[in-house]
Amino acid sequence: MNSQLAKNTKVLIVDDQALAKGYMKYSLEELGFGDITYVDKINLALTTIRNQRFDLIICSYNLRREQDGYYFYDEIKANGELPLSTAFVFISADTNSDLVQSIIELQPDDFLAKPFTVKELDRRLSRVLGRKQALKDIYLSIEVNKYDKALSQVELFLATPKNAEFFPIALKIKGEMLAASGQFQQAKEFYQAILKVQTFTWAQLGLVNSYLRLDEDEQAEKLVLRLAFKADHQLAAYDLLTALQIKQNDFDTALECVMMATEISPRSIRRHKTAMNLSRITHDYETQFEAAKKIVRFAKNSIHDKPENYLNVARAGIDYAMTTDASDTDKLIKQAKEYVRQFRQAFPKAEMDDQIQIINARLLYLDDEKTNALALLDQLDEGNWDNDSIDSLLDKAKIFHDLGLHERSQAMLEQIENRCKVGSEQGEIFLHYIHQEKEEKSNIKQSSKELNNSAVDYYQKGDVDNALEAFTKAFTLMPKNTSIALNLLQVISLKASKLGFSKTSKPLLKKCIKNIENSVLNEDQQERYHKIRITLDGV
C-alpha cells in the first residue's frame, strides 16, 4: 500500500459486529490508514455521508439490526450520494447465490469475503484506491456535470502510456461521457469500434442505449435480446428492454420484462415500484397487488420501510377486489384490512387518519354501503390535502369517482398531475397513468363494479347494443377479468351473427380471445367459450 495514499484516505466503516470492527480497524492501521470513522447502523451511515465526504466506504453486506448493505448502497447510488471518486467495498462472511447476484447487479468497486488477511486487504484496496486516484480529476468533473471537460480529460488520459493499466475503465467512461453530453451518434460509433476489438459487456449495453437515443429501436431490440440470454447480462438487458417497451408505449410487454427482472433480483424496491406503475396502466390489478406486497416484504426493517408501503397494499387490494369475481372479494378485503393492521403495529405514531378513512370509505363502497362511505368523506379536512402523498390523493380521486362525485374526482386528478409535473419523484410512467385515469374517468362515469352489473342487466333484458357498450367499458377497466371477457365475447358474437363484424369489434374480439386463452377456465366457462367459438366460426 502506498503510505501517502493510505494517509490521505478518509475511511468510513459500516459494520455492526464489534469483533469485525476491531479486526478491520487493526488491519487498516497496519496498512497506514489513520482517518477512520466507524458506524453500526445504516441510518447513522446515511447521516454521516451527508455531512462528510469519504474516499473509501467499507460496508458489511449483512447487518443484523437492519436489512443489510444492499439497500444502503442502492439508496446512496440512486440518490447521487455516492461520489464517483469514492471507493465502495462490500465485505461478507457469506458467498451465497443471492449475494453473488446482488454484487453482479450493484457493481460496487470490490467485494471481500471474510475472513481475509491483511495482505489480501492490502492488495485489493491498493488496486481500488489506485484506480480512483488515477481517475480522480475526471470523476470530479463528472460529479459537477462538466461532461465536455471530463471527455477532454479522458482523451488526455488515454493518450498517456503510463495509464495503460486503467485504459479499459477510461474507455468505458469515454462512452458514458459521449452519451451524457448528447453525442449519441459518436457514442454509437465509439461502442461499435470497441466491440470490433473486444466484446465488453459495458460496450454492448452502451450501444443499446445509443440505439435507443437515436430511435434505432429495431437494432436496440436485436442486441438486447441476445444479451438477455446471458446470465451475467440479464438484469441490465431486462431493464433496457423495459425502457424500450415503455418508449414504444407497449406497457404490457414492459410489465413482462420488469417482472422477469424482479424474479432474478427480488429485493429491488425500484423495480417493484416500476411494476406497480406499469400494472396500473395495464389494469393488471393482481400484479399491482403482488408488487405492493413485495415492497412491504423486502423493505421491512430497512431504510425503505415506510407507512405508505402498507397502505398501498390495502389500496391495491381494494382495486383488485373492485375488479375481480365476487368469490375473491371477501378474501381481498380481509388482506387489505390486515395490512392496515400491520401499518398500525409497525408505525403506531404515524398520523395518517385521513388516509385510513379514505380506505375505509372504499371498503364501505365495496360492501354496497354508499351512504356510510359518503358520510366518512364528509368528515375529511379538505384543507390538509396539499400535504397528502400522491398515493393518498389518488385514492381520494377513486372513491370520489365511484360515489358519483365526478367533478371532485377530476379536480383531484388534476392536482396530482400538476404535482407530478413540478416534482420528479413519480416519474414519466406514473404521469402517463394519471393522464389515462383522467381520460377514462371522464369517459366512463360508472365504477367497474357498477358497469358489470348494468351490462349483465342489459343483456338479460335483450338490449344488446347497451350491453355491448357497457361490457366494452367494463373490459377497458378490467382487461384481465376472464368473466368480463367471456361476456363481451358472447355479446360481440351475438351481434356479429346478425350484422357481421364492425371495425371496432374485431380488435376487441382479439383481446377477449387472448385473455380467455391465457386463463384457466372452469368447466362452465370452457363450455360457454366452446359454444361462442362455434358461433364466431360460423360468422
Automatic annotation (TrEMBL):
Q: Which residues form the Response regulatory domain?
A: 10-129
TPR repeat placement:
448-481
- One Pfam family, short name: Response_reg
Q: Cross-referenced SUPFAM superfamilies, in alphabetical order?
A: CheY-like, TPR-like
- Gene3D superfamilies in the record: 3.40.50.2300, Tetratricopeptide repeat domain
Query: Which UniProt key words apply to this protein?
Result: TPR repeat
Tell me the domain of life: Bacteria
Checking SMART domains in the record gives:
REC, TPR
Cite the PANTHER family for this sequence. Answer: TWO-COMPONENT RESPONSE REGULATOR, TWO-COMPONENT RESPONSE REGULATOR ARR22
Designated name of the protein: Response regulator
